[in-house]
Amino acid sequence: MSNKTALVTGASDGIGLEFCNILAAKGYDLILVARRKSKLNEVAESLSKQHKNISCTVISSDLSKPQAAQELFAATVEKDLQVDLLINNAGLLQNGYFTDLDLITQENMITVNMLALTSLTHLFANDMATRAGGHILNMASLAAWIPIPNQNVYAATKAYVLSFSQALHNELKAAGNGVSVTALCPGYTDTKMMDNPNQGAKLSIPDAMLQSAQEVAEQGIAACLAGKPTMVTGFANRVSAAISHLFPKMTLANIAGGYYRKNLD
Questions:
Q1: By three-state DSSP, how is residue 96 classified?
Q2: Where are the extended beta strands (E) located within the chain?
Q3: Which structural domain, as residue segments, surrounds residue 93?
Q4: Do the beta carbons of residue 56 and residue 29 sit within 8 Å?
Q5: Digit-coded pLDDT (tens) for 151-192
Q6: Strand pairing partners for 237?
Q7: Catalytic annotation on 52?
Q8: Annotation says 158 is catalytic
Q9: What's phi and psi for 5, nearest 5 deg?
Q10: Which one from 4, 79, 97, 154 is the annotated catalytic residue?
Q11: Where would you tag: which of 162, 168, 203, 209 has the fewest CB atoms within 10 A of its CB?
């Protein structure tokens, strides 16, 4: 009996790498996708040594490029790989004042966080439906629930992912094609995204507020395989998401803006 296959974007480090570790332990063959092929090869070699019963396929892709999602899907077809679980984890972040941040960089963030995710979801959901089953996990964020000044485009892209995924979950359930979509909404997570000089200012967060990437990945995969529409990771984050419904959006924006400007270095 052959293994199921999972495709993970942003697989080279952080939460993406933890997704791969967990899925490999569950016996999934893996398609590892990210920009850095050398790093992906290292991950594939390590996973293959730890888990003798799985295979790893490396596909280098820059999802900020035009038609990158379509080319990635075509590559899986060419390699005769059928994806049972798609994890749209790749994402970009920019901190700072909107007018100060580079426009092309922000456009790339929109492309990766929204357009590539939507295209990959469409392509693989249709393919999964022909086989009457499959799971898709889309990386949203706790930021999806709140308009965040000085991180406004990022938060808006994640709000899109959350709304899109929840609505699509309902559509696919009504269609009865066996495909489910889950939106994963972690809060602050201990990854390089918290301290990356390429994404504008650094946001200083107390260690006590950080979840581990492994914890986020474990909760996300469990929710996805259970067919849940949404997973907000961590009790404190779930409370924050619930509270966000109690206040006007501009009140939340004023609170978040003050906090972010105080803690951006």
A1: coil
A2: 5-9, 29-34, 56-60, 85-88, 134-139, 179-185, 230-232
A3: 5-263
A4: yes
A5: 999 999 999 999 999 999 999 999 999 999 999 999 989 887
A6: none
A7: no
A8: yes
A9: -120, 135
A10: 154
A11: 209
